[in-house]
Specification:
The protein is 78% helix and 0% strand. The chain is mainly α.
Length: 175
């Protein structure tokens, strides 16, 4: 279902396409999730939480904060540019578009963005970097770079160019 939402967006994804992706018929899909918005929110929350768990694991791993942040960006770029399509990030690519008219989607997307920044903030707070800028400010900057990578990937920027962009930003964030 994530792939359908990423490729088509929330509005253009048909219930039939979503049911096929889930391996369910329409009545079963509605019985399981309610409506399309609830299905989208479930999908966004499920994959968003998986992403935060992955982020936490990488940031808790070995190496300097620069090495761990570089690994985070590499993994994101690999995910966002995986063939045969370039899906990008569900929060940036589809939830942001729907948020003005779907406040429940906006709320879940915002919760996930906060969780991502908190994960980054914990990593910066535990690092040996200077406290200026603050770990929270570094986390916001690192998150903003992640969003930029997602947008660029969705627009078709080559993975090599995204890696070069990320590599140029890590020293700025960790300076």
């Amino acid at each position: 279902m994530r792939t359908v939402f990423l490729e088509k967006g929330f509005a253009a994804a048909s219930v039939d396409e979503l049911a096929a992706a889930a391996g369910l018929n329409r009545p079963s899909l509605y019985a399981a999730f309610g409506d399309k918005e609830q299905l989208y929110i479930h999908t966004l929350r499920f994959y968003g939480q998986k992403s935060v768990e992955g982020l936490d694991a990488v940031l808790a791993g070995a190496g300097t904060i620069e090495q761990r942040l570089s690994k985070v960006y590499k993994l994101a770029i690999d995910l966002y540019t995986a063939p045969p399509h370039r899906p990008g990030c569900m929060i940036v690519g589809t939830a942001a578009v729907e948020s003005p008219t779907h406040p429940k989607i906006a709320a879940v997307a915002n919760e996930l963005l906060v969780a991502i920044e908190k994960s980054l903030e914990r990593a910066f707070a535990a690092s040996d970097l200077s406290r200026e800028p603050s770990p929270a400010a570094r986390a916001r900057m690192a998150g903003a770079i992640m969003h930029s990578i997602a947008i660029r990937a969705r627009l078709g920027t080559k993975a090599a160019d995204l890696r070069a962009f990320a590599a140029s930003m890590v020293p700025v964030i960790c300076r």
